Amino acid sequence: MDIDVEEIRKHFPIFDRFRRDGIVYLDNAATTQKPREVVDAITSFYYNSNSNVHRGVYRIGEEATELYNHSRENIASFIGARSEEIVFVRNATEALNIAANNLPDVVGRDSEVIISRMEHHSNIVPWHIASTRYGIRVKMMENLPDRQITWEDIEKNLTEKTRIVSLSQCSNILGTINDLSAIGKRLHELGIIFVVDAAQSVPHMPVDVKKLNCDLLAFSGHKMLGPSGIGCLYGTSEILENMPPYMGGGEMIREVYENGFTTADVPEKFEAGTPNIEGAIGLSAAVDFLKKIGMDNVRSHEKELIKYTLEKEEEYALESLHSYGPRNPDIRAGIYTFQMKKGDSGKPFGNYVHPHDISHLADRIRGVEIRSGHHCAMPQTVALGTYATARASFYIYNGKEDVDTFFDALKAIEKKMIA
Amino acid sequence: MTDDTIYSQILDDHYREPRNFGRMEDPDVQVTETNPTCGDTISLFIKVKDGNLAEISYVASGCLISVASASILSEKATGSSLKEIRTMTKSDVLKNLGLKLGPAREKCALISYDALMKAIDRYNSS
Question: B15–A349: do the CB atoms touch at under 8 Å?
Fold first, then answer.
């Protein structure tokens, strides 16, 4: 099945505004729009079943618990996991913070963790904090901007102290889709814990945690049509049971005594306090929406869009345009990061368009809304030889005509800004 | 949308030919400010004579708004007393640009202002 973009847009109320104001939204790696089905699921919960979960034995209390539990099952099966392997968190960032905070006590504080340079700050900073707090050592390995992470990249950094490797399945800046299955398998043979940042992969392609051979995996709801404030930490039962709790409070305990406590079973052990019930229900509705389209179709649609983007780039041949990331659409997500710069004109300005200006002008000239800055990936940005880039990123409601409008905008910007 | 809602001719002109751009030999104070969201940097230099801003210059790598804003600010501030400059507010700076900016871009417009205020405070306390 090919994706019918027009048909999909009908499910997104914000497209009424987009049509009215001529907006082409291309910042989907940051967050996605919400279909009516997701908003309705949240509204329906508030209108009909709102109450706390796991507590009340009255009717709407049980309904709320059922809805919440069903959401967990539905989201778990979406990534090939079991319900008890899914911890609800705020977002991928929180999931990775739990991993970085809790794993040092599982693997020992004398351990080393390997991350890559293409990581989002969410998969860098928590490890640095863990390094300061627990003494583990963080090694950032190099990677090339136009190819996948390879086993050789990892191997160069392995020592007998390496106990954790944490990598993104898809780079939010380069769009590189890393082939992690084989890497996961080899890491397991070495007894190394494998953490995957799947914030840019779960929304855009079929992901099966068992095939990935990962121990922990993180993703956010708002990047996959769901509400913000809900995300998931997947963990094998073994890891989740071995990790100490992250926060204390209600929900996460079995019993509390004057001088201590015992924890609830996983996943509740990691869910202190009243959870984001409506968030889980909304994310489950988003999963249903995506399942109906089919994740294979989502991926092939975005692959087609990035292929088209790279073709258009060559066709337009804008003198100042430089883009990054693999050129092979097979290993490239719908993410297009670029700069506009021409050889040195001798003047301080006039040969370069700052990404903030690209973003501002693309919006004002053609209504194209793209991101600018370091995209929370400063080490990778610096490795590209700059401090900021612009980025367009696609989703299921984007079509080839959006790519055309995007390049029209870039052409107009080059004409206006480059001497 | 028309071009006049984008960047005005004046801003464009200040960006392409920024006034008082460059480093300064022997400044009384030098301040470097950065914008963490986009990595924009400005190094600003001042020389003070009889309580007045005798000379100001800067080197910046940044967007059109940040460079143009620094250029306009440098023109406005030159020759004024430090006391007078210190009464300038952020909204004065934004008004001088004649653009309605969102919160993210306001930071771009104000990076030179922040640098100048810091420079004056540092001069006064030295």
Answer: yes
